[in-house]
Amino acid sequence: MDLLPKRYSVITATVDATAGEIGTIYQACGFIYVGVMKQGGRTLVRINGRTMSERQAGRLAGTQGARALARLGFDASPVARRARYFAFRGSKRERARDRAAIADLIVPYPRRQNDGLDPALLRAPIFERNGVDPADKSGDRSGWGISDKMYACMGDPQ
């Protein structure tokens, strides 16, 4: 964000849930999540295997709206709106003022589904996941899932 011109005090970013995005990088960078700001959604239209926006299809067909396009025989399918993140720049006071202005919109970060993985397994050190006893001093680290060079840098697990 330091590379942006100083005149930008509010930075917005959108994520597309239909593409599997939840904004992990924005969360890691401390952006504020406000979710979907407006109800409704976009419509994607398919014509001869080509996908385009509702607006673009409307220009081609000379009409507007998903229902009108569907009546003309276009394959119009609704797509959820994108969720939005905000970040603020400026002094601490300016950032606090900007955050307070959207305080009623702020919601908790979305979380990625773990697809049935055991959360305890995800937190376990790699050698425990591979069934290796970290107290074993025999020198056999083949099941640890780490290279000898990495092991040399890490030292013995205590």
Give the arrangement of secondary structure elements:
Blueprint: E1 10-15, H1 24-28, E2 32-35, E3 41-47, E4 50-53, H2 54-61, H3 66-71, E5 75-80, E6 83-88, H4 92-101, H5 119-123, H6 126-129, H7 148-154
Antiparallel strand pairs: 1-6, 2-6, 3-4, 3-5
Provide an overview of this structure.
The chain is α+β, with helices and mostly antiparallel strands and 158 residues long. The chain folds into two domains: 10-105, no CATH class; 119-154, no CATH class. Helix content is 28%, strand content 21%. It is built from seven helices and six strands, in the order βαβββααββαααα. The chain has helices spanning 24-28, 54-61, 66-71, 92-101, 119-123, 126-129, 148-154; strands spanning 10-15, 32-35, 41-47, 50-53, 75-80, 83-88. The strands form two sheets. A three-stranded antiparallel beta sheet has the order 1-6-2. The protein has a three-stranded antiparallel beta sheet with strand order 4-3-5. Residues 144-158 have low confidence and may be disordered.
